Amino acid sequence: MAEPSAFDRENIKLQPLGPPPGLLDQFNLPPAFVAFVRRNRRPLSIVAVFGLALALGISGYTTYRDHRAGKAATALDAALAAGAGSRSQLEQVASEFAATPSAVWARIELARLDEREGQRAAAIARYEAVNSGLGSGSLVKPLVLIKLAGLFEQDKQWDRALALYNELAAIEGFAAEASRAQGRVNEQAGRKAEAAAAYAKFLELTAPADGQAKADPERDMIRFKLNQLKK
Question: How far is 179 from 195, CA to CA, in rounded Å?
């Protein structure tokens, strides 16, 4: 008796077909991960849509912010070139573009105008307002601190000037400048011991790295002041 042929239609058994392969199956991902994605398809889709909306929102805000900063810079340039009419234009830049770097510079320029016009109290108020809005890492902060402290020196408000120079001393790269200013303020206030200590600190901070004495008129002047205070 002949054996049944493998190609005999009667002997071919239809096997149940599995689900057709999906897109995830084409990437040779771990089966557990594929199963997880398929189980959580809806919440994952919601998260993806939310992430896309957030990315588009951030991109739109960045574009708007850059456009606004460009307009502010143009307005500031026009105000600085306006001559006699600069004050009103600077005020407009400061109010209309309040959250931009150009607005900060506009307020500083307004304080300088007040200073030149002899309105020291108004200049101090403007500088204080600018300073309060600056972070410790702002590149503008040292300039504002120096200008504001100088105005307090002119008013003989020694303690307020010293407080600002103390703040300046904490900023990297300005410790020597702050020490010299502290010596000057204390000397004007008649505080010889404090002035001598500040001048000594300045000489320490500005000493040559190689230890060799070099011609330095500034250090020579401070050294002379220190010797005078010690007499």
Answer: 9
